[in-house]
Amino acid sequence: MANNDEKAKKIVVIYAPPVMISHLAPLVELGELVAAHGLESTIVLGGLTDDAAAAASSSIAEGAATAHPAGLSFHRLPYVTRPRDVPAHDYVLQTFALARASNSDLREFLRAASPSLVSALVLDFFCGCAVDVGAELGIPTYFFFTSSISGLAEMLYLPVIHEQTTALRLRGHGGDDHVHAPGNPPIPLHDLPAAYADCLSLFLAVAEQMCKSHGLIVNSFRSLEPRATDAIVNGLCTPPGCRTPPLHCIGPLLKLGEAGTNRHECLAWLDAQPEASVVFLCFGTMGRFNVEQTRQVARGLERSGQRFIWVLRRPPDQDDGKQNTDPDLDALLPDGFLAGTKDKGLVVKSWAPQREVLAHAAVGGFVTHCGWNSVLEAIMGGVPMLAWPMYAEQRMNKVFLVEGMRLAVVMEGYDKDMVGDEEVATKVRWLMESDGGRELRERARAARRRAKDALSDGGESRTSLLELVGQWKR
User: Fold this and answer.
1) This protein's superkingdom (predicted)?
2) pLDDT above 90 coverage of the chain, percent
């Protein structure tokens, strides 16, 4: 926070759920941008328990703090007790509950900082219950939505959807039924996030809390999702009688072109490949396949005949309590796969620098779980996608990507027990060799141009950010 010599400097407090790393990363990017424009920025981590997972998340944030510029700091609220009535396996419900348990500590932190110096309180939607804390202390409170504008439109409209849809059907048992939100393509019920049904009352509360806020900040850009943007701005997504807060589209928030001290081996391998010739397969920090699905992917890649980089994590059915260990490739992959593909493919254990890979000229396609951070990285790289959603809002993102933005095609069978090797081979080959794949690649490159324009001087996202920072400074 500001010291005694900097009392006049305005502070923006960003309240983040620490166990959601996919949310924490763009929130930190936002904090960096705010600090770069002359405001103090503090990332507050609430909802922490003293268990290993929360401690690891906190360590990641604290480690990041040392690498960030002056003006950006991190603060960890006191540990809270995990509610006994919250199932240990339900991380969504846990995150909501633990954020609520930290409300009183957040209130004391803001009071100690002097509310008159806090020009804005920015909340992740998992921390939406803190909107009342901001109102109590007279601090303008905003939401930062880390996913798409289309996803925000869907969430704002959720109370209306709920009125029109029974709880049973909302769980995805409605056959061919779809839900319709203004500005979005129809979404099959089975592609809605499971948490919408399992924690429905909490998400309905988030929609209401957003309407009480001073503004909605989104990690996307208007020209990528014009219909959803217009629907929100025109008040079509908020329930009758609710106000629509101002919308600030400031994305993509990504650091591209930052090279580490040690360049990953896969980038050197890519240097030797022809332009747009490599398919990159990566499924996020939590995306893992069982042994049989892993082998189906391997057979499909080999049958496709295409160059590939595949980030492969240890299957859950091989964990034996060691889920963070690297996979044993020889035991996991089909006999002869590594030898048969050594001239065209590279299997990387557990992790690769995804942003740098997708920005590399040799990459011509991306098989992705449709996490929003990954989608934005693909867009900034101008890389078309094969959509293989797995959890959370990824199935809904798949609909937006395929039906709305037209930057992806779906890997059929994602919603079944198994995606077969024939489907993998056919889709990968289609993406890299067909006229349809070339058209998809051209659309992806056009999206990259729009993204770069949005972030440039005078661009829509940069202008929106500067307007927002200007408000906070005043």
Assistant:
1) Eukaryota
2) 75
